[in-house]
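Help! Submission page says 'invalid entity' but I think these are all valid:
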Amino acid sequence: MVQIPNTPASLPPAQRSVPTSADVARLAGVSRATVSYVLNNTRAVRISEPTRRRVHQAAKELGYVPHAAARSLRAGHSRMVLMPAPAVPLGPLYSQFLSDLQGALGRLEYTVVLYGTGGLHGDAAARAWAELRPVAVIVPGPGIGPEGVAVLKRSGARAVVTLGPEPVDGAHALLMDHEAVGRCAAGHLYARGRRRIGVVVPEEPGLRAFSRPRLAGVRHALRDTDATVTVLPLAYDEECAARLAARCRELALDGVFAYNDEYAMLLMRALQDDGARIPEDTAVVGADDLMLGRLLRPRLSTVHLELPSGRDLAELVDRAVREPGAAPETHTALGATVVHRDSS
Amino acid sequence: MVQIPNTPASLPPAQRSVPTSADVARLAGVSRATVSYVLNNTRAVRISEPTRRRVHQAAKELGYVPHAAARSLRAGHSRMVLMPAPAVPLGPLYSQFLSDLQGALGRLEYTVVLYGTGGLHGDAAARAWAELRPVAVIVPGPGIGPEGVAVLKRSGARAVVTLGPEPVDGAHALLMDHEAVGRCAAGHLYARGRRRIGVVVPEEPGLRAFSRPRLAGVRHALRDTDATVTVLPLAYDEECAARLAARCRELALDGVFAYNDEYAMLLMRALQDDGARIPEDTAVVGADDLMLGRLLRPRLSTVHLELPSGRDLAELVDRAVREPGAAPETHTALGATVVHRDSS
């Protein structure tokens, strides 16, 4: 095997005291193959109970832990499911979804790895993920193209699942239709008699992938009606919210879809402090159906999102890993319904 | 090398079309060593520009991606920093801390991997982490003991950093003093003249590691005073909050430290709906200093937590990786100060 200098060169050489399966074999007085059979619990090979015990005893004594990378090199694949870690702090809804998904994949004996990219995008990110040789990759949002999918598959990934607005060639798709969220909110405001409608678009850059289709959904729903749509950029702080509330008053907006509940709570407070009556002067609708929205007075109306269940997604991944040749599946995975409370 | 059957046995055999560095070497007409030198950007070896270009061209043509596991097997270590993924959904404060840490470690060329354990605890979890041969492990909360640290170190981890209430033998420690949060809140309520003080303890089990020391801090601060402490278990839903508000009235509690801002917002609303004037009848203090607490009326008093900066923690990890023999460092890393608003 070729000897490669450590990368980066400044690291000291590794300590060589890490026990290997050869050490275990020597101590137990068996072959390395037997060690592997015993520790990987291979049933195809019959090994006597005393030998098994001797191997386990030796492994314990030496503190030997199998090496997942070596095992995956031999097997040609790992049990690693990779997801890029989100660049923005998680909302409670997505955070819960992620916990569920990790639990469900764990029960199917996959190891979930959230990859913190540190600024890599698109195909460069896909190449970095491929270096870890994951058996499956789940990409939330529009973070990968057909070329990236191909790189991953060439590197041994059996399944790539995207959770974006559109399917990507070669990948399974759970379509997250964020336009539906905007359509839903706009339809509700229109039905409540609102005609001068504002749409909050967060200035935080990581949220654009979601805010753009939500805005498009509003425009779509109100096309060919007598309603107007005004885009309202908002950074998540109180000062900006106060300025935006004043602007809503000047423009005489009578309804606002505020991107999500957190932005809605921020803007609703600013509107109230600016003297607006909610919902008489201005109706406010959020999205995500957070518990906190119910604690406000008036209670916040919202769009309830139905994310795919972690279990369903885990089962899709497992199916795809077992049948890597099957045609990519496409499912629509984001349900959106208005929860009408007191703010609209 | 011993041939090990795939685990689990039900997976179909891996497709063997994954291009290897040998394929790149063949196409470029150079040795595998040269391919490795070029693609790992090794500066210790001089290789001509045309040869470099030929190797890059061949790698591109074949869609070859280096194999991180193979590289780490050769080098004896990886650039992987492993963190167990939290079992409970992240709060916004911790979620932001995690984003910062991932960014900072990414800039130091580490790959951050959040490991979804799926129910493993203590030393069993440490063994599972060790199988991935991380170069460093960061354990938030009290999730590892000295034996687990030893397993990781024997498996090649150069640094283990704990973010718990107490140092662990063999590991670097950023001490998170959650007792200080409780002391701080209790001292504030006492100074505001409150003597019958309730402490909310979330019933959600994943939060116990934080709620227990916070409660202990309250008891500690009020020991040898004329104040009483009542423990108030609370599940995070409106019905439980309504029942607890009635109980606060019956017990004539005049001050509540509500674990964090989310529980405080929930309870404060229930107290208001139950007819309590805040803060005249009951003062309420949360913790975490969330923006949303400022949007309520009255504005929520809170304990502001100062988590360690992601950059400082990343630098501690990097230092420890570079000097694996150095004595473990211990730093106190959680600052706590009261932010007095209108609810107390």
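Support: the input was valid. A stray whitespace character was the problem, and the output above is from the cleaned input. Chain B touches chain A through 97 residues (CB under 8 Å).
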